[in-house]
Design a protein that fits this description.
alpha+beta, Rossmann fold, 9-stranded mixed sheet, UPF0340 protein FYJ62_09230, DUF436
Length: 187
């Protein structure tokens, strides 16, 4: 597997999601990731921190340049807790929990790499559905972290490596019924 290509794919996908979702600086972008699936294996069977680092580098390049907070989802063994910057934890009034993600035991490779590489990283149990957009790489289930209403987002690609990706963004709820006029920029 070409790690440089994985990083480029992750960067491209993230850039397209950021543009399509209109996410802004100071908002959260959630990533759930199975490095095993990127390698064409079943989730949880072939964890790779090298693949996770390539993904992290591509994703963080886009998010950091735009001032968008990354929320890196852990695996189910840590109850899908998330790695975030301390500044995001404080801004969103989140509660820190005490665990350090591990690639093969609890957390997963992507969360482990995020915890190691992210400036002033902390682990939080929940972000209370505050993410504005995100990407699920390999079927890790991120919808619970995105602010309702979660809308699927189609981009120019449907895989990173061998992993299927599902992209999503939020949109404000529609209110007012058939008489309402909606702001097209928010749809």
């Amino acid at each position: 597997m070409d790690l440089n290509e994985i990083s480029k794919q992750a960067e491209k996908a993230t850039r397209e999601i950021v543009e399509a979702s209109r996410i802004k600086a100071g908002q959260m972008f959630v990533v759930g990731c199975s490095s095993s699936e990127v390698l064409g294996e079943t989730i949880g069977t072939n964890t790779s921190t090298d693949v996770a680092e390539a993904l992290y580098n591509g994703i963080s390049k886009v998010l950091d340049a735009k001032g968008i907070y990354l929320a890196a989802q852990c695996c189910e063994h840590l109850n899908r807790a998330l790695v975030v910057k301390r500044a995001a934890m404080e801004k969103y009034d989140l509660e820190q929990v005490n665990a350090i993600p591990q690639p093969n035991h609890a957390g997963g490779a992507f969360a482990t790499v995020a915890y190691q590489k992210m400036a002033d990283a902390v682990l939080v149990e929940d972000i209370h559905a505050r993410a504005e957009a995100g990407i699920d790489i390999g079927g890790t289930l991120i919808g619970m972290h995105i602010h309702p209403v979660v809308v699927p987002l189609r981009i120019s690609m449907d895989k990173i490596g061998e992993a299927n990706i599902i992209c999503a963004r939020r949109r404000p709820k529609y209110v007012g019924g058939k008489r309402a006029i909606y702001d097209e920029r928010l749809m």
